[in-house]
Amino acid sequence: xxxxxxxxxxxxxxxxxxxxxxxxxxxxxxxxxxxxxxxxxxxxxxxxxxxxxxxxxxxxxxxxxxxxxxxxxxxxxxxxxxxxxxxxxxxxxxxxxxxxxxxxxxxxxxxxxxxxxxxxxxxxxxxxxxxxxxxxxxxxxxxxxxxxxxxxxxxxxxxxxxxxxxxxxxxxxxxxxxxxxxxxxxxxxxxxxxxxxxxxxxxxxxxxxxxxxxxxxxxxxxxxxxxxxxxxxxxxxxxxxxxxxxxxxxxxxxxxxxxxxxxxxxxxxxxxxxxxxxxxxxxxxxxxxxxxxxxxxxxxxxxxxxxxxxxxxxx
Length: 315
Description:
The chain is 39% helix and 18% strand. By secondary structure, the chain is α/β, with parallel strands linked by helices.
């Protein structure tokens, strides 16, 4: 079912509204009384809060159908990406699919796009995640659409996988290994703050003269990774000993944990990106919720159950 073209009605398409960041963007738009449609790989997973939205399945192979699912939209909020390559799902394919989405949006008459990227992307990066994000940004900037590119640091929140699973391991194992010295920095940003920033940027694009901007979504606190893990351990009352190991040893341990939990706990590229300090903004903070305060409020729930990336996105 395609969206009717209404010049006087603001219609927002949010990719992945039943996933993580997309869910919070969609919820924020709905709370403002906006019309929302989603493109998703999981149409069978509607959220009770999002039961009023129209649902379309991603169809990158059928560009006509993709165009029709976008037709009449005012703004496209894009969160489509993948955390790691698995099977036929590669970063190269993710870039190609996003370029197809951009082309379909233009053909459908969508004039504005808000894209969730990552801090410190580079087309020259050795890390496919960050390189692919940079290539997508280039495609958006060159598309002719009005755009806002939001670059989050380390996102945390109620359904977050990384922070939750750090707490899960801290609750259940006597040691917690970290790569190298642990002196590299992270800058957590709350997912609801990220959604607020993205929606505000989308609303600004509706005003004349706002053509394009790039904004880091970064929280108010920076931690060394060692202190970050120590803070989580303190809040969940873990007695696990934090131990420093070489990156290759950490990867080997993570590979064993993959078998235990039947998931992808951590990848080699994620270790490299973390140690390179890529999850930190060079700009002043744009989001206000401190991780330390959020942990105080959610310590009893965090890490009680393991959150599987593979189950969430591939099954």
